[in-house]
Each structure stands twice: as C-alpha cells, then as structure tokens.
Amino acid sequence: MRPTGLGIAVLAAWLALAVAACGNQGIAPIGPSGGQATPAPGGVVRDYDLVAVPAVVELKPGLKVQAWTYNGTSPGPQLTGVVGDLLVVRLHNLLPVGTTLHFHGLDVPNGEDGVAGITQDAVPPNTTATYSFRLTQAGTYWYHSHQDSSVQVDRGLYGALIVRPRGSSPAGVDQVLIYGDWSLGLEAATPPAPSDVLMRSYVTTSVNGLTGDAIRPVAVTAGQPVRLRLINTGHTIRYLQFPLPVTIAAMDGHELSGGPPTTEAIPLGPAERVDVTFTAPSSAFSIQLVDGFLPDAYAAVPVQPAGATGPAIPAPANHGVLDLLAYPARAADNPWPDGTAPNKTFSMTLSEQAMGAMPGMAMDGVQYQIDGEVFPATPTLHVTYGDRVEITFVNRGSLVHSMHLHGHFFRVLARDALPLPGALVKDTVEVAPGHSVTIGFLADNPGVWMIHCHQLIHAAGGMMALLAYDGAPRLAQLGGAFGNSPD
Predict the structure, then answer these.
(1) Which domain holds residue 348?
(2) Considering its fold, how many domains does the chain have in total?
(3) Which residues of 306-340 are buried (b: 16+ CB within 10 A; e: fewer)?
C-alpha cells in the first residue's frame, strides 16, 4: 500500500527539500506526538504512505469531479491491520492548503489524534507528518482530514481502516462499502469557493468512489457467509434496505451478539459504521438507499452470486426503519457494565440559531450551538483519569445532530431518560430533535479531546466542544501561522 520504486524515492527527496525550506522560513509546525515505536508482542509494523493530492476522479463514465485525494483516489487506500500491530502512516501533503489525518473511532494517544488546533498544527503544503500507534481495537473504522474537515472531507479526503482480531481470518466475503456525497460545484473545472451554495448541493451519491452503473457488484457464492462493512462519510443519515434478513454484527467497530435478523431499513448516520452479516442466496439482489434523496436511485449496490439462478430478489414494496438504538444486542467490549454509577455527569444542549448580528462561528447564516454558545466559547468538560462519565445530549433544535466523542468509546445508556434494551457501544450517536441521548464512558485516555457534531457543516458552524483531563496539556492552538481550524 505504498508508492513503489523510483516514485517514492523522488517524492521523499523532494519532500525533504521542501521540509528544509519550510524550516528555514520560520516557525516549525507542531506535528503528531506521543507516537509508539514498536508493535505489541506478536504484532508487526503496518507501513503506509498517504499522499494528499488534487486529482480528477471519475465517478462514472462522463462524470468527473475535482477532488482532493489520498494517492490519487477517493476513497483512499484501505488501511488494514491486526490487533497488536503498529500502524505507521506518513502523510505527504501535496495540497494547496494545510491538512491532517484523524483515525475516526480509534482511541489513539492524544497527540496522534490529528485535530488541527487541538492536538497538532495543520501539516503545511509540501511537508510530511508521521503518525504511529498500536492497534488495540478490532473493527471497522475510517480516516479523514480534521483540518477544515467540512471542506476537505467533502472533496474526498477519507478512506477505510479495518482492524482484525489477532488469530482470526475473515470467512467468506468481507467487504467495505463507503457511502459518500459529491457536490455540484466539484463538477466544474474550477470549483467555486467553499461558501458557494453549489459546494453544498449534493447531487451525487457514491459507493466506494463510484456511482450509477459504475458501482462494482459484491461477488458472492450461494451459501457463503457475507459481511458488509458500511461506512457513511457524508452529511446526512442514509437508510439502507436489504431485501433479505441481515444481522447487525457490529456498530462503530464494536462486535455485537444476540441481535435478531432484520428486514427493516438500516439507518447509517454521518461517520457511523454498521457491519451486517447474512448468508449469500442463490439469486441476485441490490442494496438500495431508501431515504428519498434524489441521487439514491444511482447508489444501488448489486450483490451477484456466481451462477445466479432465477429472478433477482425484488426490493420490498414497503419498509419500516430499524430503531438502531433499540436493537437488543450486546457488545463484548462494554466500558459501562450493568449497574455502573457515574461519578461525573454533564448535559449538553444542542440547538441552531439564525446568526443575525451575533458574533462567532456560523455556516450559511446559522450558528450551531452547544449550551447557547459556539466554539470556542462552548463549555469545556473537565474530567480526571478514572472518572466514570455520563453525558446527556439534549436536542432542542430542529435538526438531527450526530455527536462524536474523540479518544473514547461509550455505551449508549438511555434515550429520553429511558434505558435501552441492549448494550450498544459506539463513538458516534444520532440525537433527534426533541429527544435526548445519554452515554457513559470510562475516562482512561488522558488529553484534550474534541466532542462535535459529525454533520461537518454543523461543526463548522460552531457545534464543537472540548473534553479536558485535569493536568493534560493542550498540544496546539486555533488559527496561528498554520491556520488551524478543527471543524
């Protein structure tokens, strides 16, 4: 998964000159820190180079977008590893702007979290940053920029990261499906400014970087076990309809047991991952998006058994929507055993407000607020190592908010103060208008961490806050010479 031969040698030499030149011109950027140097016993080093570079990406014949990519593709290369391995990723920035790498859902050391203005400076153009940490969690994760992420993720800076348990190998088909959104503005030879309405006019939905008839089928054999790892990199909840019963095997990378098969449409919120399993039938079918968004008809994923017989399995004429939080399954790696009592509790009220003459962050004239404030004026949650922390997100606005906690995974404890039937462990949770969701986690990863809405336009409009451990230093600051902007 690295550039090979002369290409990487030339790149390395050129970047070394660029780094030296940058260093001679003034202050050096704060880079990733606290990296680990060796794998756990029995692990190996997984070594990757990701080159952030502009490229024209063809979503289907005749439809091209001006993308920002990793190694010339969007999604970027799939990173893989096994629990105990050391992941080493060198980010070479050939973009015209600064960027970073964030490993979404992995509880990395704070300095490796890749958040501009919080844990590091944005990596300037023509320089390199290296991230290095042990893989401690099996599951489905993803990586993306966390500098101006509402812009950079929109342009294509994301990819999948799959970590497998040690001593196991996938049985049957095990495949990733990454759902992305593309704006009309990116179809122009010279895209307009990020604030232009065309840059938020999402007219194309892609699956693994392709749309329409260009989407590649999932090839299976009848009777084979199939696992599909679904990732949503976009701004809205997508609803995936399978025309046969599937079991939810994992949420946000955390393996589940005890959940029943379902034929209801499965909601997949921004930044969330849902792994589904089923036995391959002998007839073909398609995985449909049924949320009613215009491009959905062009985002069907064919599942094609070898030597398929008979007609394709039809899409259901009617469908319900699965209540994901009420799914009665339990995660093995539960950080909040039944009966746990918090020793620290917080409440965060989510809302939207027309900006008017109010100062502060906003998007399209709207401020997205936590407790009536926009970042960086939002309240910081202060914790001590070892605390058992509850946070209740209360949505007083009119929009769904997809709340993501960095550096920790949590159990979803309650909705509207009512306990949930399972033990679901996640890192991102949807909070619907007029409702509340309570989460619980163990404060066991010191640092200063982001909490934010992963509908990234909402984050850019102010819906961000910090979780800070007592005594932990903040490693970088907003703005400055490198224009740090963590949204």
Answers:
(1) 344-482
(2) 3
(3) eebeeeebeebeebeebebbebebbbeebbbeeee
Compute the distance between CA of residue 385 and CA of residue 404 in angstroms, rounded to an integer.
20
Peptide bond into 305 cis (omega under 30): no
CA distance 84 to 150: 32
DSSP codes joined into one string, 278-310: EE--SS-EEEEE-S--GGGGG--EEEEETT--S
Alpha-carbon gap, residue 59 to 214, rounded angstroms: 7
* CATH number assigned to the domain comprising residue 198: 2.60.40.420
Buried b vs exposed e over 193-202: b needs ≥16 C-beta within 10 Å? Answer: ebeeeebbeb
pLDDT at position 306, please?
A: 93
Which sign, positive or negative, has the C-alpha torsion 211, 150, 461, 321? Answer: positive
Contact 422, 258 (CB under 8 A): yes
Enumerate residue ranges in the chain where pLDDT < 50: 1-10, 12-24
Q: Is residue 325 part of a domain?
A: yes
Indicate whether 163 and 25 sit together in one domain.
Answer: yes
Q: What are phi and psi of 308, to 5 degrees?
A: -55, 140
